[in-house]
Amino acid sequence: MAADGDGARPRTNQADLGALIAQLKASYGERASTSLAVREQHAQGFSFHDIRPADVVVMAKTEAEVADIVVAAAKYSAPVIAYGTGTSIEGQLAALEGGVCINTAEMNSILSVNAEDMDVTVEPGVTRKQLNEHLRDTGLFFPVDPGADASIGGMAATRASGTNAVRYGTMRENVLGLRVVLADGRVIHTGGRARKSAAGYDLTRLFVGSEGTLGVITAITLRLYGIPEAISSAVVQFDDMEGAVNAVIATIQWGIPIARIEFIDEVQMDAINRYSKLNYGLKPTLFLEFHGSTSGVTEQTTRMGEICDEFGGGDFQWTTDAEESRRLWQARHDVAFACVALRPGSQAMATDVCVPISRLAECVLETRKDIDAEGVVAPIVGHVGDGNFHVAFLIGPDDREGDLIIANRINKKLVERAIAMGGTSTGEHGVGQGKMAYMDLEHGEALDVMRTVKIALDPNNIMNPGKIFTI
Amino acid sequence: MAADGDGARPRTNQADLGALIAQLKASYGERASTSLAVREQHAQGFSFHDIRPADVVVMAKTEAEVADIVVAAAKYSAPVIAYGTGTSIEGQLAALEGGVCINTAEMNSILSVNAEDMDVTVEPGVTRKQLNEHLRDTGLFFPVDPGADASIGGMAATRASGTNAVRYGTMRENVLGLRVVLADGRVIHTGGRARKSAAGYDLTRLFVGSEGTLGVITAITLRLYGIPEAISSAVVQFDDMEGAVNAVIATIQWGIPIARIEFIDEVQMDAINRYSKLNYGLKPTLFLEFHGSTSGVTEQTTRMGEICDEFGGGDFQWTTDAEESRRLWQARHDVAFACVALRPGSQAMATDVCVPISRLAECVLETRKDIDAEGVVAPIVGHVGDGNFHVAFLIGPDDREGDLIIANRINKKLVERAIAMGGTSTGEHGVGQGKMAYMDLEHGEALDVMRTVKIALDPNNIMNPGKIFTI
């Protein structure tokens, strides 16, 4: 997808840029890099947007350094783009107007674990796997799992979620507080360690999901959960999509506290079978996971089996065997690789929407029709407990431009359909550049309120400009 | 508590005020009232702040009317205060600079119930009891329960919660979307019906808890939950506060999905025994409620009994009998009346803080010491699963001013202690006027960010001015 032409000019003139780079090199030495390879590597993420490198990439080690870099950039009105692990999907990392990329990967300390309060405070470069590894001996874990081993800072900035949001919520529900460097270099804290508060505006949730456009996140306090005593996994296949979705609706209405409920369509099941050497039927399928006490998990699983049976689910296979579960979920986690293996040399372009669950079957089926009408292969998987699903378009290697045109055409219909159904243009990938065109349709006048907030907090528009909306 | 002197001047000159009132009377006839009795009745809520009536109270019936009234007020820079049921506690309703009070009580339609999606959209004047009555046949309910039969609009504006937030969350977690009339009369919608979204700034949560200072909420979309198959209630008494709190911590860490876990101190138990004609020991006590399947509730209750036993809890009495449960929780709900009955003719001034749960016992015990040192009677009850507790000070009838001075002295120490412990000045009552003095201590520089957002969205400061912070 081509970047927005209007944003293509560098913001800062050459003389100012030279002065800024000289200042950063003087302060940070080799940690301030102008190498094209380094700059390009920081500018793309997992997106198909044009690579638009920043003018300089700085590896920050502390919050004070982040503030210092922001102040330096602000002095020359140069844009600031924060970088975690580079796993964002919608072109969030492109430096559309040049400027400074702040890599926070080395800000990866776990600042404090409060086991009694079940919270943790981390620097933004800590990744979710690193965090859970660190927590293992405490009996606690952090549940939000977007698939990629993303940084917690990036996950907060994108309002990430993933497979188990249906039970544990998204970053919106699980960030208790933040520290943020603002566009003028001020450092603030938001929220705190109390589980709830009615003390003023919810700035925490204003920054969560703001995709670096309001400030750079330098610390995150997160809710943790007890590692469940027992876990069971199940797979059940349906003759049609409606049966699978109706089973999901019934599950949620029954209040079964299911931890994961993933839908995989027949195209993706084919890909999974081939890639993970499994032997499932090529049917709409639910992958399920239950967390709880030993007897609680048995009860949940049994009841879910009954529900699936009622809605035409086939043989309900479940297990509490850790190795068997691991293999099952590994197959689910490998869907991106499995997709790409359908057409060697291609890359997967993922899009996501989220709709009220009563509209999910219709939304998926109409999208499947669009895909089939275009004659392309594009598996659909979804975190269906939330009404959230993804389409993975295979791009390249033979006709990358043509593939992108088709993918974007289907994507446009999909997003407009989701919004018309009372849903949203993105459940978890964020807006970046890729969903900007739909913000007006989704938000109407409220988009202007977002702009007003942005301009108030970042009047020179230096924080990740050209993302979410243009000013 | 006296109102802030600086805010005591009327904002609008007499001529403009006359014109504004004439316009409102012309449009709304008898629904626009300037009667002192009506105006005073709308200006106090459950607070001890001075009664500061608006100049005119208008009963609005539609969103379009709210917008029209706001536009009229804006024309004369007159303040706008939204009113739901008048149950706010921290002086949120006082018209410190005069202006227009918009009563939304007649905007009480339930606009749509989506049973499959487990959401509902309501007008702001719908009360929580009205909503749950309406939902009864659907098998769904709305869990947030602040005690009073508050309006949903007021609950959203105050970020209310209550006894079962530990399981179901607060208004922060349960509002999916809003419609809001802004200070310039524009009407926006925020959020939507999707369970999650990563599409831009989280304006929903910016308005939730903003206490009418950013706009008037005209519709609210809420998450609903299935009415649990089984409910059990339990009471357990401890020799000391620490045992009770440690049992709570263990419960949460074990992941027991407890629905209510209420702490009641020995002073309040005495009040409850007298008022509700019960016969509990005068000890730190937990009231508990479990929701789930029949076997799930039995398992939760049994395990909780074991935990309480481990931490020195006495006889663990539990029941699934609806009538017995009702009597128990009625006693809990009547704590305010029970308090007041300790000193006939007095009124209860309630304050609330929320701290990380590991600090809860210490915070409560130090507060109890402060209360005892002042020689006053002030029961403590708390939603301890969240680390949230209330102190009820008895004010009057003999020395109202003296009682308020003592209450505010203890309150100040309590709030400063809670903030020093990493907690918050208010878990669920909001800031209003009562907690304004602590905002700087709690938020530091972030308070200026709140002000910046406020000024950007309401440059003439007409929306409930003088609450949360001064401009």
Please characterize this protein's 3D structure.
- Helix content of chain A is 37%, strand content 20%.
- The longest helix of chain A has 21 residues, at 400-420.
- The first copy, chain A, is globular and about 70 Å long.
- In chain A, strand 17 and strand 18 form a beta hairpin.
- The model of chain A is unreliable at 1-7 (pLDDT under 50).
- Chain A is α+β, with helices and mostly antiparallel strands and 471 residues long.
- At the A-B interface, strand 9, helix 8, strand 11, helix 9 and helix 11 of A face strand 9, helix 8, strand 11, helix 9 and helix 11 of B.
Average of pLDDT of chain A: 95
Count of structural domains of chain A: 4
Kindly estimate the percentage of residues of chain A that lie in beta strands according to DSSP. Answer: 15-25%
Radius of gyration of chain A: 22 Å
Biggest interface, CB < 8 A: A-B, 96 and 96 residues
Shape summary of chain A: globular
Structural class of chain A: alpha+beta
Put the structure in a nutshell.
The structure is a homodimer of 471-residue chains. With 471 residues, the first copy, chain A, is of the alpha+beta class. Helix content of chain A is 37%, strand content 20%.
Topology (SSEs and partners):
The structure is a homodimer of 471-residue chains.
Chain A (H helix, E strand, L loop, with lengths): L13 H15 L3 E2 L2 H6 L14 E4 L3 H13 L4 E4 L16 E4 L6 E5 L4 E4 L5 H8 L4 E2 L10 H7 L6 H4 L2 H4 E7 L5 E5 L11 H5 L8 E8 L1 E2 L3 E8 L3 H13 L4 E7 L1 H11 L8 E8 L1 H17 L6 E3 L2 H12 L1 H8 L4 E8 L5 H15 L5 E4 L4 E8 L4 H21 L18 H5 L2 H12 L14
